[in-house]
Amino acid sequence: MKAAMFKRLNEMAVAEVAKPIAGDGEVVLKVHDCGICGSDLHAVRFGFGMPPDSVMGHEFCGEIHEIGPGVIGYRIGERVTSLPFIACGECERCRRGRDMHCVKFRGLGLGQLPGAYAEYVVCGAGSLFRVPAKLSSREGALIEPLAVGLHGVKRSRLQPGSSCLVMGAGPVGLATLIWCKAMGANTVVVSELAPQRSELALKLGATAVVNPEVMNPADKLRELTGHRPEVIFECIGVKSTLSSAISMIAIGGQIVVLGVCMEEDQISPATCVFKDITVDFTVGYMRDDFQETIDAMASGLIDAKPLITDVISIDQVPAMFQALSRPTTQAKVLVEFPH
Ligand SMILES: [Zn+2]
Ligand SMILES: [Zn+2]
Fold first, then answer.
1. For 328-339, how does the pLDDT look when each residue is reduced to its tens digit (9 = 90+)?
2. pTM across the whole model
3. How many angstroms is it from 95 CA to the middle of ligand 2?
Protein backbone atom coordinates (compact mmCIF):
# COMPACT_ATOMS: atom_id res chain seq x y z
CA MET A 1 0.00 0.00 0.00
CA LYS A 2 0.99 3.62 -0.41
CA ALA A 3 2.01 5.58 2.67
CA ALA A 4 3.48 9.02 3.40
CA MET A 5 6.36 8.89 5.83
CA PHE A 6 8.91 11.02 7.62
CA LYS A 7 12.28 10.60 5.88
CA ARG A 8 14.54 13.09 7.64
CA LEU A 9 14.24 16.60 9.07
CA ASN A 10 12.05 18.72 6.77
CA GLU A 11 11.42 15.86 4.36
CA MET A 12 8.39 13.65 3.78
CA ALA A 13 8.20 10.93 1.11
CA VAL A 14 5.58 8.60 -0.36
CA ALA A 15 6.52 4.91 -0.65
CA GLU A 16 5.04 1.43 -0.99
CA VAL A 17 4.92 -0.41 2.34
CA ALA A 18 3.40 -3.72 3.46
CA LYS A 19 -0.34 -3.63 4.17
CA PRO A 20 -0.87 -4.12 7.92
CA ILE A 21 -2.61 -7.09 9.57
CA ALA A 22 -4.91 -6.84 12.61
CA GLY A 23 -3.42 -8.40 15.76
CA ASP A 24 -5.23 -9.30 18.99
CA GLY A 25 -7.71 -6.59 19.95
CA GLU A 26 -6.98 -4.62 16.79
CA VAL A 27 -8.76 -3.67 13.59
CA VAL A 28 -7.43 -2.54 10.23
CA LEU A 29 -9.17 0.50 8.77
CA LYS A 30 -9.30 1.41 5.12
CA VAL A 31 -8.55 5.12 5.46
CA HIS A 32 -10.94 7.57 3.81
CA ASP A 33 -9.57 10.91 5.01
CA CYS A 34 -6.71 12.03 7.23
CA GLY A 35 -6.03 15.62 8.28
CA ILE A 36 -2.63 17.28 8.39
CA CYS A 37 -1.99 18.60 11.90
CA GLY A 38 0.27 21.34 13.21
CA SER A 39 1.99 18.75 15.36
CA ASP A 40 2.88 16.77 12.21
CA LEU A 41 4.57 19.88 10.86
CA HIS A 42 6.39 20.42 14.18
CA ALA A 43 7.50 16.78 14.22
CA VAL A 44 8.92 16.92 10.70
CA ARG A 45 10.69 20.15 11.50
CA PHE A 46 12.15 19.19 14.89
CA GLY A 47 12.26 15.37 14.63
CA PHE A 48 11.20 14.68 18.26
CA GLY A 49 13.20 11.44 18.00
CA MET A 50 10.84 10.11 15.31
CA PRO A 51 12.62 7.29 13.42
CA PRO A 52 13.02 7.62 9.62
CA ASP A 53 10.24 5.90 7.64
CA SER A 54 7.62 6.57 10.35
CA VAL A 55 4.20 6.65 8.68
CA MET A 56 2.49 9.77 10.02
CA GLY A 57 -1.15 10.96 10.27
CA HIS A 58 -3.40 10.89 13.36
CA GLU A 59 -6.67 12.72 12.47
CA PHE A 60 -8.60 10.23 10.42
CA CYS A 61 -11.79 8.47 9.46
CA GLY A 62 -12.16 5.19 7.62
CA GLU A 63 -14.06 1.94 7.37
CA ILE A 64 -13.35 -1.30 9.14
CA HIS A 65 -11.53 -3.56 6.73
CA GLU A 66 -10.29 -6.39 8.94
CA ILE A 67 -11.15 -7.41 12.50
CA GLY A 68 -8.51 -9.05 14.67
CA PRO A 69 -8.97 -11.86 17.22
CA GLY A 70 -10.87 -10.93 20.38
CA VAL A 71 -12.60 -7.86 18.94
CA ILE A 72 -16.35 -7.83 19.48
CA GLY A 73 -19.07 -5.35 18.59
CA TYR A 74 -17.76 -4.18 15.23
CA ARG A 75 -18.37 -5.37 11.69
CA ILE A 76 -16.59 -5.00 8.37
CA GLY A 77 -17.50 -1.83 6.48
CA GLU A 78 -18.54 0.22 9.53
CA ARG A 79 -17.25 3.76 9.46
CA VAL A 80 -15.22 4.83 12.46
CA THR A 81 -12.66 7.25 13.77
CA SER A 82 -10.11 6.43 16.42
CA LEU A 83 -8.25 8.07 19.24
CA PRO A 84 -4.78 8.43 17.73
CA PHE A 85 -3.24 6.07 20.25
CA ILE A 86 -3.66 2.75 21.96
CA ALA A 87 -4.12 2.93 25.74
CA CYS A 88 -4.30 0.06 28.23
CA GLY A 89 -7.74 1.03 29.57
CA GLU A 90 -6.76 -0.27 32.99
CA CYS A 91 -4.24 2.03 34.61
CA GLU A 92 -5.31 4.74 37.03
CA ARG A 93 -5.00 7.42 34.33
CA CYS A 94 -7.13 5.48 31.85
CA ARG A 95 -9.76 4.93 34.54
CA ARG A 96 -9.96 8.70 35.00
CA GLY A 97 -10.59 9.14 31.25
CA ARG A 98 -7.04 10.36 30.73
CA ASP A 99 -6.21 7.73 28.12
CA MET A 100 -3.86 10.21 26.55
CA HIS A 101 -1.60 9.95 29.60
CA CYS A 102 -1.83 6.14 29.84
CA VAL A 103 1.30 4.62 31.35
CA LYS A 104 1.40 2.22 28.37
CA PHE A 105 0.52 4.92 25.81
CA ARG A 106 1.40 4.07 22.21
CA GLY A 107 0.73 6.90 19.77
CA LEU A 108 -0.32 6.55 16.14
CA GLY A 109 1.40 8.55 13.45
CA LEU A 110 4.13 10.26 15.42
CA GLY A 111 6.83 7.61 15.43
CA GLN A 112 5.52 4.85 17.69
CA LEU A 113 2.75 3.10 15.71
CA PRO A 114 2.16 3.73 11.97
CA GLY A 115 -0.38 6.45 11.23
CA ALA A 116 -3.08 7.09 8.66
CA TYR A 117 -1.30 8.83 5.81
CA ALA A 118 -1.69 5.39 4.31
CA GLU A 119 -4.33 3.33 2.56
CA TYR A 120 -4.70 1.18 5.68
CA VAL A 121 -4.01 1.75 9.36
CA VAL A 122 -4.13 -0.50 12.43
CA CYS A 123 -6.11 0.77 15.45
CA GLY A 124 -6.91 -0.63 18.87
CA ALA A 125 -10.58 -1.65 19.06
CA GLY A 126 -10.80 0.16 22.41
CA SER A 127 -9.87 3.42 20.69
CA LEU A 128 -12.66 3.38 18.08
CA PHE A 129 -15.73 5.61 17.83
CA ARG A 130 -18.52 5.05 15.31
CA VAL A 131 -19.08 7.86 12.80
CA PRO A 132 -22.82 8.39 12.18
CA ALA A 133 -24.03 8.05 8.58
CA LYS A 134 -24.99 11.74 8.62
CA LEU A 135 -21.36 12.78 8.77
CA SER A 136 -19.07 12.56 5.76
CA SER A 137 -15.67 10.94 6.14
CA ARG A 138 -14.18 14.40 5.69
CA GLU A 139 -16.10 15.55 8.76
CA GLY A 140 -15.03 12.35 10.47
CA ALA A 141 -11.40 13.40 10.06
CA LEU A 142 -12.21 16.67 11.89
CA ILE A 143 -13.35 14.97 15.08
CA GLU A 144 -9.85 14.77 16.55
CA PRO A 145 -8.87 18.44 16.04
CA LEU A 146 -12.33 19.59 17.17
CA ALA A 147 -12.01 17.54 20.36
CA VAL A 148 -8.86 19.55 21.13
CA GLY A 149 -10.88 22.78 21.00
CA LEU A 150 -13.67 21.25 23.07
CA HIS A 151 -11.24 20.16 25.77
CA GLY A 152 -9.88 23.71 26.02
CA VAL A 153 -13.30 25.35 26.11
CA LYS A 154 -14.58 22.89 28.74
CA ARG A 155 -11.62 23.87 30.90
CA SER A 156 -12.66 27.51 30.74
CA ARG A 157 -15.24 29.43 32.77
CA LEU A 158 -17.00 30.54 29.62
CA GLN A 159 -20.73 31.01 30.24
CA PRO A 160 -23.63 31.34 27.80
CA GLY A 161 -23.98 35.01 26.91
CA SER A 162 -20.41 35.84 27.92
CA SER A 163 -17.47 37.00 25.81
CA CYS A 164 -13.93 35.87 25.13
CA LEU A 165 -10.86 36.40 23.00
CA VAL A 166 -9.36 33.65 20.83
CA MET A 167 -5.75 34.28 19.85
CA GLY A 168 -4.95 32.68 16.50
CA ALA A 169 -7.21 31.37 13.73
CA GLY A 170 -5.28 28.26 12.77
CA PRO A 171 -7.09 24.92 13.09
CA VAL A 172 -6.88 24.94 16.91
CA GLY A 173 -8.08 28.54 17.22
CA LEU A 174 -10.92 27.94 14.77
CA ALA A 175 -11.98 24.76 16.55
CA THR A 176 -11.97 26.73 19.81
CA LEU A 177 -14.07 29.47 18.21
CA ILE A 178 -16.60 26.87 17.00
CA TRP A 179 -17.03 25.53 20.55
CA CYS A 180 -17.19 29.01 22.14
CA LYS A 181 -20.12 29.76 19.85
CA ALA A 182 -21.71 26.36 20.50
CA MET A 183 -21.43 26.95 24.26
CA GLY A 184 -23.41 30.15 23.79
CA ALA A 185 -20.70 32.82 23.94
CA ASN A 186 -22.19 36.08 22.82
CA THR A 187 -19.10 37.95 21.71
CA VAL A 188 -15.99 36.17 20.42
CA VAL A 189 -13.14 38.35 19.19
CA VAL A 190 -10.43 36.51 17.24
CA SER A 191 -6.94 37.88 16.67
CA GLU A 192 -5.21 36.75 13.48
CA LEU A 193 -2.67 38.14 11.02
CA ALA A 194 -3.62 36.21 7.84
CA PRO A 195 -6.56 37.73 5.91
CA GLN A 196 -7.84 34.38 4.56
CA ARG A 197 -7.95 32.86 8.04
CA SER A 198 -9.68 35.99 9.33
CA GLU A 199 -12.41 35.53 6.76
CA LEU A 200 -12.80 31.93 7.83
CA ALA A 201 -13.13 32.99 11.47
CA LEU A 202 -15.94 35.39 10.53
CA LYS A 203 -17.65 32.63 8.58
CA LEU A 204 -17.46 30.39 11.65
CA GLY A 205 -19.17 32.97 13.85
CA ALA A 206 -16.49 35.33 15.19
CA THR A 207 -18.04 38.66 16.22
CA ALA A 208 -14.93 40.48 15.02
CA VAL A 209 -11.46 39.56 13.81
CA VAL A 210 -8.59 41.88 14.64
CA ASN A 211 -5.12 42.02 13.16
CA PRO A 212 -3.05 42.45 16.35
CA GLU A 213 -0.45 44.46 14.42
CA VAL A 214 -3.14 47.03 13.68
CA MET A 215 -5.27 47.02 16.83
CA ASN A 216 -5.08 45.57 20.34
CA PRO A 217 -7.68 42.76 20.34
CA ALA A 218 -8.52 43.50 23.99
CA ASP A 219 -9.47 47.05 23.00
CA LYS A 220 -11.76 45.61 20.34
CA LEU A 221 -13.47 43.41 22.91
CA ARG A 222 -13.83 46.37 25.27
CA GLU A 223 -15.35 48.39 22.46
CA LEU A 224 -17.95 45.64 21.97
CA THR A 225 -18.65 44.67 25.58
CA GLY A 226 -17.41 47.50 27.79
CA HIS A 227 -14.74 45.40 29.49
CA ARG A 228 -11.48 43.55 28.90
CA PRO A 229 -11.54 39.84 28.04
CA GLU A 230 -12.37 37.66 31.07
CA VAL A 231 -11.40 34.50 29.20
CA ILE A 232 -8.61 34.30 26.61
CA PHE A 233 -7.75 31.18 24.60
CA GLU A 234 -4.12 31.23 23.51
CA CYS A 235 -4.08 29.12 20.32
CA ILE A 236 -0.87 30.33 18.66
CA GLY A 237 1.96 28.87 20.72
CA VAL A 238 4.91 31.01 19.77
CA LYS A 239 7.23 33.04 21.97
CA SER A 240 5.57 36.03 23.69
CA THR A 241 1.94 35.12 22.92
CA LEU A 242 1.31 33.99 26.52
CA SER A 243 2.81 37.22 27.76
CA SER A 244 0.54 39.28 25.52
CA ALA A 245 -2.45 37.26 26.76
CA ILE A 246 -1.40 38.16 30.32
CA SER A 247 -1.24 41.84 29.43
CA MET A 248 -4.71 41.73 27.78
CA ILE A 249 -6.65 39.69 30.36
CA ALA A 250 -9.12 41.36 32.72
CA ILE A 251 -8.44 41.43 36.47
CA GLY A 252 -9.41 38.02 37.86
CA GLY A 253 -9.66 36.54 34.36
CA GLN A 254 -8.61 33.17 32.97
CA ILE A 255 -6.19 32.26 30.19
CA VAL A 256 -6.49 28.79 28.66
CA VAL A 257 -3.38 27.79 26.72
CA LEU A 258 -3.89 25.39 23.80
CA GLY A 259 -0.97 26.62 21.67
CA VAL A 260 2.24 24.64 21.99
CA CYS A 261 5.25 26.94 22.23
CA MET A 262 8.32 24.74 21.71
CA GLU A 263 10.79 27.26 23.09
CA GLU A 264 11.51 28.63 26.55
CA ASP A 265 9.38 31.71 26.98
CA GLN A 266 9.21 34.57 29.46
CA ILE A 267 6.24 35.79 31.44
CA SER A 268 5.91 38.20 34.32
CA PRO A 269 4.65 36.21 37.32
CA ALA A 270 4.17 39.47 39.22
CA THR A 271 1.71 40.71 36.60
CA CYS A 272 -0.22 37.42 36.95
CA VAL A 273 -0.22 37.78 40.74
CA PHE A 274 -1.30 41.41 40.81
CA LYS A 275 -4.02 40.79 38.23
CA ASP A 276 -5.11 37.76 40.29
CA ILE A 277 -5.55 35.59 37.17
CA THR A 278 -5.69 31.88 36.39
CA VAL A 279 -3.63 30.29 33.62
CA ASP A 280 -4.64 26.79 32.51
CA PHE A 281 -2.57 24.61 30.19
CA THR A 282 -4.36 21.89 28.23
CA VAL A 283 -3.30 19.08 25.95
CA GLY A 284 -5.38 16.97 23.59
CA TYR A 285 -8.66 15.73 24.99
CA MET A 286 -10.25 13.17 27.22
CA ARG A 287 -12.16 10.18 25.87
CA ASP A 288 -15.54 11.86 26.49
CA ASP A 289 -14.55 14.87 24.39
CA PHE A 290 -14.41 12.63 21.30
CA GLN A 291 -17.95 11.32 21.70
CA GLU A 292 -19.25 14.77 22.62
CA THR A 293 -17.72 16.14 19.41
CA ILE A 294 -19.34 13.40 17.32
CA ASP A 295 -22.74 14.04 18.93
CA ALA A 296 -22.46 17.81 18.41
CA MET A 297 -21.60 17.35 14.74
CA ALA A 298 -24.38 14.81 14.19
CA SER A 299 -27.03 16.98 15.89
CA GLY A 300 -25.96 20.04 13.90
CA LEU A 301 -24.88 21.97 17.03
CA ILE A 302 -21.59 22.57 15.25
CA ASP A 303 -20.70 22.67 11.58
CA ALA A 304 -16.99 22.33 11.06
CA LYS A 305 -16.92 21.75 7.31
CA PRO A 306 -15.69 25.30 6.55
CA LEU A 307 -12.45 24.35 8.35
CA ILE A 308 -11.49 22.22 5.35
CA THR A 309 -9.62 24.43 2.92
CA ASP A 310 -7.80 21.78 0.86
CA VAL A 311 -8.27 18.13 -0.06
CA ILE A 312 -5.23 16.42 -1.58
CA SER A 313 -4.08 12.94 -2.61
CA ILE A 314 -1.38 10.99 -0.82
CA ASP A 315 1.08 11.79 -3.62
CA GLN A 316 0.75 15.50 -2.83
CA VAL A 317 1.68 15.11 0.85
CA PRO A 318 5.44 15.88 0.59
CA ALA A 319 4.83 19.08 -1.40
CA MET A 320 2.01 20.16 0.93
CA PHE A 321 4.28 19.72 3.97
CA GLN A 322 6.79 22.01 2.26
CA ALA A 323 4.08 24.57 1.55
CA LEU A 324 2.72 24.41 5.12
CA SER A 325 6.18 24.89 6.65
CA ARG A 326 5.95 28.56 5.64
CA PRO A 327 3.32 30.97 6.96
CA THR A 328 0.14 29.73 5.43
CA THR A 329 -3.41 30.63 4.59
CA GLN A 330 -4.76 27.08 4.82
CA ALA A 331 -6.82 25.88 7.75
CA LYS A 332 -7.37 22.11 7.63
CA VAL A 333 -5.80 20.15 4.79
CA LEU A 334 -7.18 16.62 4.30
CA VAL A 335 -5.42 13.75 2.59
CA GLU A 336 -8.15 11.76 0.85
CA PHE A 337 -8.02 8.20 -0.44
CA PRO A 338 -10.35 6.83 -3.13
CA HIS A 339 -13.27 5.08 -1.40
ZN1 LIG B 1 -3.42 16.67 15.67
ZN1 LIG C 1 -3.65 3.08 30.69
1. 788 999 999 999
2. 0.95
3. 7
